[in-house]
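Example record

The entry below shows one chain as it appears in the dataset: sequence first, then structure tokens.
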Amino acid sequence: MGAIISITNDSLELRFSGVINQNISIDTYNDHRMAMAFAPLGIKVPIVINNSEVVSKSYPGFWEDFKSIDFQYDMN
């Protein structure tokens, strides 16, 4: 997605690489939390959230509410 990640036994560091990857696709693995956790990324860059309808398990109006703040998304 455009991050440089460094992991040690004691830390996790995320740094911006200077380039935002295009054509970002997020797999939800049928988990509504994955879709909702990654959705805010779509405010910064275009993304595709695969199996995005999984949010209906806990928040059926999630995508409509996100659209109300000008969020652009492609449902797969």
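Notes for this example: The chain has one domain: 22-75. Strands lie at 3-7, 12-16, 24-27, 47-50, 74-75.
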